[in-house]
From TrEMBL:
It comes from the Bacteria. This is Response regulator transcription factor. It comes from Lentzea kristufekii. The modification 4-aspartylphosphate is found at residue 57. SUPFAM superfamilies: C-terminal effector domain of the bipartite response regulators (SSF46894), CheY-like (SSF52172). Residues 6-124 form the Response regulatory domain. CDD domains: LuxR_C_like (cd06170), REC_NarL-like (cd17535). Keywords: DNA-binding, Phosphoprotein, Transcription, Transcription regulation. Residues 150-215 form the HTH luxR-type domain.
Length: 218
């Protein structure tokens, strides 16, 4: 049998922490290995427990979720941990910073349990998870502030690859991109892989952030 996905839950609200842990532990393929209420404790516990996924709140005492994510999954971390950020709409700017810090995805705190479980499994598999219904509102709201000045330098991408990148940034899934461009999902996967390789990006989350930072979507 495949070992269950090991999950660390970090949230400063005990009720939410307990609720998440109860939902996760009820799944045969998932296992909560630890809980904590601040980012510093999350970093320490992750070092000791080696979880596969950290479910991370944003606003917490001692060290917030952004700082903790940067220490667990940021640039230069030799063995990054997959971080799934949970947030509310009014924390969208914080979540954008968390994605820049290395998070593998984000969910809303009011998402149904099935979405939380799907998110954990998706991130654990090495894929990135974006909530399509809030991607544009989340990142696009801050695009003007973060968009660099000067000419866009995406010349290494073929026209179709650039088109796929824009659709990724708009929150479309592989199947939706395939339908929009009238191509197969396997072809979309090939394009996505090429985009990530050419731009030296880790996953779809970084691709979304990159696209907004470069002004490729509005």
């Amino acid at each position: 049998m495949t070992a269950p996905v090991r999950v660390l839950v970090c949230d400063d609200q005990a009720l939410i922490r307990t609720g998440f842990a109860t939902i996760i532990d009820a799944q045969p393929d998932l296992e909560v290995v630890g809980e904590c209420g601040d980012g510093r404790a999350a970093v320490d516990l992750a070092g000791r427990l080696s979880p596969d996924v950290v479910v991370m709140d944003v606003r917490m005492p001692v060290l917030d979720g952004i700082g903790a994510t940067r220490l667990l999954a940021g640039a230069g971390v030799p063995d990054p941990v997959k971080v799934l950020v949970v947030t509310t709409f009014n924390l969208d700017e914080y979540v954008y910073e968390a994605l820049r810090a290395g998070a593998s995805g984000f969910l809303l705190k009011d998402a149904p349990p099935a979405q939380l479980l799907h998110g954990i499994r998706t991130v654990a598999s090495g894929a990135a998870l974006l909530a399509p219904e809030v991607t544009r509102q989340l990142v696009g709201r801050f695009a003007a502030r973060i968009r660099p000045a000067g000419e866009i330098a995406e010349t290494q991408l073929a026209p179709r690859e650039l088109e796929v990148l824009r659709l990724i940034a708009e929150g479309l899934s592989n199947s939706e991109i395939a339908a929009a461009l009238v191509i197969s999902q396997e072809t979309v996967k090939t394009y996505v892989s090429r985009i990530l390789t050419k731009l030296d990006l880790r996953d779809r989350v970084q691709a979304v952030v990159y696209a907004y930072r470069r002004g490729l979507v509005t």
